[in-house]
Amino acid sequence: WLLPRRSCLGEPDKPFFLLNSDIVCEYPLKEVLSFHQAHGGEASIMVTKVAEPSKYGVVLLDEESGQVKEFVEKPPVFVGNRIDAGVYLPSIDVLSRVLPRLRLLERQVFPSIAAREACTLWFMLDFWMDMGQPKDYLAGLRFCLDYVKRHSPSALAAGQYIIGKVLVDGSAKVGEEYSIGGRTWSWDRAA
User: Fold this and answer.
1) Exposed, middle or buried, 153 (CB in 10 Å: 0-12/13-18/19+)?
2) Alpha carbons 129 and 180: distance in angstroms, whole number
3) In the chain, which ranges are continuous DSSP H helix?
4) Are 156 and 166 in contact, with CB atoms under 8 Å apart?
5) Which residues, including other chains, have CB under 8 Å from residue 88's CB and lie 6 or more apart?
6) pTM
7) pLDDT digits (tens, 9 = 90+) for 154-174
8) Using an 8 Å Cβ cutoff, are 83 and 56 in contact?
9) What are the φ/ψ torsions at residue 136 (nearest 5 degrees)?
10) Three-state DSSP class for 175?
11) H helices within 2-79, ranges in order?
């Protein structure tokens, strides 16, 4: 975790976004912020459902109240399929409870917030994937490009030398003598 200095974040009661860098999703940050502001609490966590929860941190809920009961990291047996999706919106005050050798917010910070019923969950119903392992990168890229094709097909590159689903950022320059294809996302690193 790379956490900003408290002085860079502003007022103590204001929230800030903390994002895992190994996920791909639509990042509905405005919606999460609106939800957090409407529900209050010390932190909001984005959760999603997955078919195979044993690779993730599972969030167990009290079904009546909707409050977090427990965080179970990579359970060896099925305990639920709602997982921590890696998008957090804690208040700045939460930083004072972060230990210098922080390993997992789910083990060291969020359980105490949940115990005070000050943790709300925002359910991600759309496109989300963990790309934390190198083997998952290509699957994640394909997943992302499929999503773009379904929701914003005009964003995909088109032309005689474009083969398949390709995103080309406006900062990238592609010479006419080149072909691009096979699930590609291109951008200019210098931009």
Assistant:
1) exposed
2) 25
3) 29-39, 105-108, 110-115, 134-151
4) yes
5) 17, 18, 19, 43, 44, 45, 46, 105
6) 0.74
7) 988 887 778 888 888 777 777
8) yes
9) -85, -10
10) coil
11) 29-39
